[in-house]
Amino acid sequence: MRRQQRNRRIFSLVIAALIVVALGVFLATELTRPHTFEPPTAATTFDAADLARIEEENGTPAPAEPAPSDRIIMTMDGDADTFVLLGEEYLEPGCHAFDPEQGNLSDVRIDGAVDTATPGDYTITYTATDSAGAEASVTRTVHVVESFDDFAGTATSLPVLMYHYVYTADNPPDEVNANYLLDSTLEAQLKYFTDNNYYYPSYQEVRAFAEGTHTLPARSVVLTFDDGEEGFLKYGIPLLNQYQVPATSFLIVSQEGTEEKLREYTTPYVMFQSHSYNLHRGGSDVGRGGIIHALSTEEIAEDLKQAQAVLGNTEAFAYPFGDNNENAWAAMDEAGVLCAFTIENRRVVPGDAPEALPRVRIAGDYTQEGFEYLVEPNGGEQ
User: Fold this and answer.
1) Could you say which of 142, 227, 275, 328 would form a disulfide bridge with 122 (CB–CB 3.0 to 4.6 Å)?
2) 288 backbone dihedrals φ, ψ, rounded to 5°
3) Which residues are bridge partners to 139 per DSSP?
4) 339 bridge partner residues
5) Which letter does DSSP use for residue 220 in this model?
6) What are the beta bridge partners of residue 199?
7) pLDDT (tens digit, 9 = 90+) per residue, 283-307?
8) Domains in the chain, please, with CATH?
9) Are strands 357-361 and 81-85 parallel, antiparallel or unpaired?
10) Is residue 163 a contact partner of residue 345, using CB atoms and an 8 Å limit?
């Protein structure tokens, strides 16, 4: 009997010893095993306290949210409030991103979708990232509507305005001609657009309107400024920013100071497009004597691409002196230009060739009443 009790005690002690040994092995393994932290998905967000706790608990830096960039300038093509008729196609205009230090940022992410079969408001978000990982974003609201009644109906023609130079009364040029516009005159015109709810279509919309495949509001207008002259940069751009009116500045890209202009004057409301790299010069006895008449399609296309490499934009082109021909039209297609503009003085109408679109000239001596007639819904048609 005593032998059985002694055997049971020995058995219990052996079991207890085995349990202690096993527990010791488990604890030693856990204490020496390196712990890993599985980072959260990109969609997860943290506040400062969360990030500090993760780092403290795991010894691994938590994923940081992308830093916002205060340098990247996002410039949307067209109106930030885009309007599309119910059932028509939404034409994505895209957005340009520019960093004064890094130049054009070509990779702009687009998020969002538009259902043009259902009336309502849709959001498209554009996001650009610089080489350091900093981000900038801007949004476009797309309104799918059943009519353009808020814009005086449907357009039968579109005024694309051709401006040149801007000056101030305190600093007039030595010689003022019709190409020069007082800044106060430009401001009155921009105020008119703002007060009367004008719409600013993208070049995708302009091309489709000319081809007869897209409808625009009657109160639509496109503003273009040729040559990138100093007065426009100094006095015109601040007014466009103030009234939040999108416009295009056509630059002669080979001119000295082009890259400085891009760094100093790029804004959310001004796109810099090509007035050629080096075609703004004489060289033929055709038309207005521009060299474009002496060049082949391949030579013109090469000039276009050289300018595009600097500007980062391909949507629009303004012919130097307005000179254009079949070689130039083919070059526009080869270089991917959506809309090329002449100086033919009239509105764009459906059926016009996107490779040779007219513009309405705005001269500095026009009265405000005359200006309003030129841009009013379906007015000033020729």
Assistant:
1) 142
2) -95, 15
3) 125
4) 316
5) B
6) 220
7) 999 999 999 999 999 999 999 999 9
8) 2-58 (no CATH), 66-146 (2.60.40.10), 152-375 (3.20.20.370)
9) unpaired
10) no
